[in-house]
Write a structure and sequence with these properties.
This protein is α/β, with parallel strands linked by helices. The chain has a domain of 69 residues. The protein has ten helices and ten strands. The strands form two sheets. It has a six-stranded mixed sheet, with helices on both faces. Strands 2-1-4-5 form a four-stranded antiparallel sheet, covered by helices on one side. A hairpin with a 2-residue loop joins strand 1 and strand 2. The termini are far apart. The structure holds adenosine-5'-triphosphate (ATP) and magnesium ion (MG). Keywords: ATP-binding, Nucleotide-binding, Transport. GO terms for molecular function: ATP binding; ATP hydrolysis activity. InterPro entries: AAA+_ATPase, ABC_transporter-like_ATP-bd, ABC_transporter-like_CS, P-loop_NTPase.
């Protein structure tokens, strides 16, 4: 198993070129290009049905594209034989939209599913130890490991899903709407955890989200899906230079302004906490 160090030394762990995905006559992506940088949290946004989830499924090999190429860690995913992809599959973790855990398994057993799949030789004691460690790592109390998903709150279930995505010590994490359905405080805490794990574990994160607070708070860059393509990718100030109507409406609307204010306030609070005691300036 990897020890959390970066194995991939290249600049772009994900490279997508000329990607076309379609269901019958219905074209979701048309000649889409995107590169994800090592070590970044890339936010992926776009209206409902623009193909964010389909794009994620294509990258992890669950959706066969009609055209184009996808490389992960320099390994071609498109047109690859299953045994060629196996070596990269255990280097990523996934939290699907809705993030369903197996309801008949405890949280620890859920985390063990990918471990058993890739390392069937692992002894029960070690499986137990690793899964409990992952559970605690995501900020859940230790006793959550032996609980069933139905016994957890929504926010705890998201953390358990994250623990399962982290089971194999991935270098790359795919998260599809991980904070959907959480209250703003729960969502902000999840964001904080994600940023912290990304930085300490040296992860690269492909993060699909509708949550403007998340985009402002933790994403290094944001990719915008519209018109069947990634129409822009960059920091939020860079995106604001685009005159594409969807980008302007999304990032300049009242909700975006509120998210920006929240981010500035949080930065100010963090700064004042850094100052030595007694310094009220
Ligand atoms: N298996 C499938 N068969 C047919 N059409 C599909 C399939 N999966 C997705 N689609 C269609 O592809 C389009 C993109 O779907 P996708 O789930 O990627 O959207 P999304 O951007 O993730 O939306 P949301 O923000 O609502 O999650 C949608 O119109 C959807 O109906
Ligand atoms: Mg989706």
């Amino acid at each position: 198993m990897s020890n959390g160090d970066l194995h991939y030394e290249g600049e772009f762990p994900i490279v997508i070129e000329g990607l076309t995905n379609a269901f019958g006559d219905f074209v979701v992506h048309d000649q889409l290009d995107l590169k994800v940088r090592r070590g970044e949290i890339l936010g992926v946004v776009g209206g409902s049905g623009t193909g964010k989830s389909v794009l994620m499924r294509a990258i992890i090999g669950l959706q066969i594209p009609r055209e184009g190429s996808i490389e992960v860690f320099g390994q071609r995913i498109t047109d690859a034989e299953p045994d060629e992809v196996i070596g990269v599959r255990n280097r990523w973790g996934v939290l699907f939209q809705g993030g369903a855990l197996f309801s008949t398994l405890t949280v620890a057993e859920n985390v063990q599913v990918p471990l058993k799949q890739f390392y069937p030789e692992l002894q029960h004691e070690l499986l137990d130890e690793i899964s409990r460690y992952k559970v605690v790592m995501t900020g859940l109390p230790a006793d959550a490991a032996s609980k069933y998903p139905s016994e957890l709150s929504g926010g705890m279930r998201k953390r358990a899903g994250l623990a399962r995505a982290l089971a194999l010590d991935p270098e790359l994490l795919f998260l599809d709407e991980p904070t959907a359905g959480l209250d703003p405080i729960g969502a902000a805490k999840f964001d904080e955890l994600l940023r912290e794990l990304t930085d300490t574990l040296g992860l690269t994160v492909f993060l699909i989200t509708h949550d403007l607070d998340t985009l402002y708070a933790i994403c290094d860059r944001v990719a915008v899906l519209a018109d069947k393509k990634v129409i822009a990718v960059g920091s939020i100030p860079e995106l604001l230079e685009s005159d594409h109507p969807w980008i302007q409406e999304y990032f300049n609307g009242p909700r975006a302004r509120a998210a920006l204010t929240a981010k500035s306030n949080a930065d100010r609070r963090a700064k004042s906490m850094d100052k030595p005691a007694g310094d009220k300036a």
